[in-house]
Amino acid sequence: MLDIALLRKKFTFVKEQINKRYKEYAGLNRFHEVDSKWRDLTTKIQKLNSQRNDLSDQISILMSKKMFDEANKIKSDVHGIKQTINTLEKERTQIDDELLQILFSIPNIPHESVIVGKDEKDNKLIRSWGTPKKFNFSPMSHWDLAEKLGLVDFGRAVKLSGSRFTIYCDLGAKLIRALQSFTLDINTKAGYKEMLPPVILNPETLYGTGQLPKFEEDLFKLTNGKFLSPTAEVQLTSYYANEIIKQTSLPLWLTANTACFRSEAGSAGKDTKGVIRQHQFYKTEMVKIVEPQNSYKELETMVKQAESILKALKLPYRVIMLCTGDMGFAAAKTYDIEVWLPSYGAYKEISSCSNCEAYQARNLKMRYRDNKGDNLVFPHTLNGSGLAIDRLWAAVIENYQQADGSVRIPTKLHKYFDGVKKIKYAM
Hints:
Helix content is 41%, strand content 19%. It is an alpha+beta fold. The strands form five sheets. An eight-stranded mixed sheet has the order 1-10-11-12-15-9-8-4. Strands 7-13-14 form a three-stranded mixed sheet, with no helix packed on it. A two-stranded antiparallel ribbon has the order 2-3. Strand 11 and strand 12 form a beta hairpin. The longest helix has 39 residues. The protein starts with a helix and ends with a strand.
């Protein structure tokens, strides 16, 4: 969430910045009204507490002088004031909850370097790498080629779980596992600490990173009130929630590969074929927890880390800076990396790297003490896909397909395949 002090002192500025996202946020307009009620109640409670303390002092003086009748009269007044305070505090508690929900409903302020725009049409190309391959045959889509090679079974996945689920089979499953290991190996060699967190999460954790309440319809909710993880960003960022981190331990770089789950409630009809948009998918995530003055430099190195995986696999890609209207709720600045997919004749997102500044840390009450030991500071948190495994799998299948219908295994993955260098039709 945003700093409430910033909202109070510079509300007009905050509103101008949030409006750059080109979306309506009702909570932003309600903030002043609810906050004014909260501050009015707080002032009344403070005055009544001060009055009660003064009267209590008078009672002590009267009792010491054995003026019991006068003391008892004032005691009656104190009792009445205490009841009024209790009533006002109950009312303030309700407003506390409402104010918190409003704060959770207001997105992050875009960084000044982010392009102001309405949607993806206004995003900016930063750079591209590699040249899309020109095939001397008609390339197949990953869903058709993978089924012919026995790498997936979409039909039985529907039988087991419904639409938008995939069963990876044989070398298809082995390729998923190889890509999981490969991405983790590259990240850990770069200095990321590997983690393996649970994928069932309590609501507080999802509030902390901004998935709740805004995106509840896109989450899988369990019968016990908990949720399936939509991304390991949640677990890794929340790892130090409600803790004071040693400044000497910063920056913290974490990585994990987990199954992720999204109901995709708002994406009907999008990418229904293949493995691009599934309810269950795999992703290697990167998270950084850093000192504020270093966070934008850390964002650039995170993007390059994700790029290094695509370069190692020799997959053409491009880097896009998202405009204000296309950024995620908690992000102050975001780069998307898009990989080339021949079946689409286009680039498709395979990584999104964001700096959330102190937005998530404030939600999570995660802080560090500065070197002087005087101040507690909210660190900046960053997250990025390194990479989306199913989409990476599709990119390998499509870009490495051969004229004879086989798929060549990228050189960097050979060590995971026990000598197999090509996926061929079963005889």
